[in-house]
Amino acid sequence: MRVLSNLRYAARCKAQSLPKPRTAWARAGIRYELNVVKALALFVPVLHNPWYVFEDDHGASYISPDIVLPYDSKLIVAECKLTYKPEAIVKLRRLYCPIIAMATEKPVLPLVITKNLNPSAPEPGLALSIAIGLAEPLLHWTGKGSIGWGIASAERSEADGDASELASGLSPLGV
User: Fold this and answer.
1) Beta bridge partners of residue 78, listed in sequence order
2) Can you give the residue range of the structural domain that contains 50?
3) I want to staple 97 with a disulfide (CB 3.0 to 4.6 A). Which of 108, 116, 117, 159 is the partner?
4) Helix/strand/coil percentages in the chain, nearest 5
5) What's the Cα-to-Cα distance from 86 to each of 110, 130, 138, 165, rounded to whole Å?
6) Is residue 4 part of a domain?
């Protein structure tokens, strides 16, 4: 994983190409990710694989997190994993979140969403609003049923307003 050093610039950019998944496990991971996107889209429009360009001491490069979505006045940046991997939260905190926070000028919350837990996994949240408040923000979703959002209706209305701005492309949210 690339380690940021003196981040100087970050902005949303046009999509770059990703390699096609070669293994059955990788294809299953993409299917799970798409199911997460569909489940979250019941609450807010979701940016799936948005691209950002950035520059630090190592030069210019690109990132594309799995998911970015509005949450109150913040953004959630999520990585989807078939099986929990502690490296996912490290990547979010040390790479994706600082870049997206600079690009959008919004507070950013990391979140790992996983289908399968293993013994090294911390205690997960079963609703999004609970999971993002954990020391290790982990949401366990098996791919069945809806993803628990866990917010009150007034907050939901605010999130819906942010979501309509998000859906219109580059928005006041700056994503």
Assistant:
1) 67, 111
2) 9-167
3) 108
4) 30, 25, 40
5) 13, 19, 10, 33
6) no
pLDDT tens for each residue of 3-16: 899 999 999 999 99
Q: What is the pLDDT of residue 93?
A: 97
Length of the chain equals 175
Instruction: Report yes or no: 119 and 86 within 8 Å, Cβ to Cβ.
Output: no
Confidence (pLDDT) at 41: 94
| Residue 128 belongs to some domain of the structure | yes
Task: Produce one character per residue of 108-130: b if its CB has 16 or more CB atoms within 10 Å, e if not.
Answer: bbbbbbbbeeeeebeebbeebbe
Residue 70's CB is within 10 A of a number of other CB atoms, namely 27
Query: Could you tell me the pLDDT band of residue 97, with boundaries at 50, 70 and 90?
Result: very high
Nearest to 55, CA basis, from 10, 15, 105, 96: 10
Q: Does some domain include residue 3? A: no
141-170 pLDDT tens trace: 999 988 988 753 334 444 444 444 443 333
Q: How many domains does the chain have?
A: 1
Which is nearest to 8 in space by CA: 98, 70, 68?
98
Residue in the block written with tokens 């020391």 = 135
CATH number, position 51: 3.40.1350
